[in-house]
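Exercise: predict the fold of this chain.
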Amino acid sequence: MSIVMISESLLQRATATDGRILRDRVLSGFGVRLNARKRTFLIATSVSGEQFRMMLGHWPLMTVDEARSHAMDVLRQCRNGERPSRKVKTKLPTLRKALVDYCKAKGIKASSQRRYDSIFRTHFADWLDRSVKDLGSEEFAEHCHAFVTSKGAALVEVGRGIVSALIKYVNAVHGHDLVTPFTKLAAVGLMPEKSKPRARVLQIADLPAWKLAVDQLGQRQQDYLCLTLYTGLRRNESRELQRQQIDVTGGVLSVPDTKNGKAHSLPITPMMREILERRCLGLEPDDQLFKGVSAEHIHSMAMRLGSPRFMLHDLRKLVATVGEKLGLSSAVLRRILNHTAPKSDVLHRHYIGLSEVDVAEALIQIQKALTEMMLTAHQGI
């Protein structure tokens, strides 16, 4: 058995799968077994002269710090001549701590973490510093019932999702069998109907007036809205573009951090190139192309100048709509919009792979169609 300092980084790097045991250099008796499918924390010591073995849990559901803390409690009993129970009693975290641990374990993006934190502080504040065990109480069930009957369907869906995911995480890590109150509410028909997707506000027929209003904005705001329309990027994906994401020579725009977690790239078409070359001029690699543009308020600015009512997401929907009208395949549109195919669609999910080169012509077709719609509008005014 090797004697090492057991740590998160060590287990992340470990490649052994032969069942070997690594013993901790600092805490005698604490170790981890490396199998093909599991990393198991364990105690290997003696109690009153007799060998004693105990499994503590599996990494990464149990962190090294949690395992070491549990091991110290067990070993303390062993040193006192007490034979510990095989079932280790774990100290349950508060809801606040469990949320932090869940986000860390799942690799949740910072923007999503802020949203989850806001939901809990706003709608479940009284439970944040209580034990997660209380999530299975009747009191919490009543609170969830009041939540679903007083809030909008979209908010209820998000709240239900994060609370249910958190309870599943607590059950897996701490060995509990808590049942989410939302499951019980749904079983008796007390959950509201699922929220419907927001209808597109900006229509193709509105593009003339939209373009006229956009042309009255500052150049940077114009470029931001037109690039968002031409690419179908989500509003923050285009708003936070940096110079280093634009390979003008290679003709590729890259977005490493996206909503679905998959890095995205698009070909730089002639219409995009004009905008990108203008915006990249004189910038350092870390500089943002649209620094100072507010994705929250730019649509209001355009509407004050005469634009029809619209949301930035409407521009993304227009790319999909025009692409469909042009007869482009769903695989091509998914690739342009960075949409993930349904789990049941094995062909598109696991077999078909399109590069930015493969969708270049399709994207140019969409952009030309959108431009013609806006030019036609100008000519008719």
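Check your answer against the key: The first strand starts at residue 2 and ends at 4.
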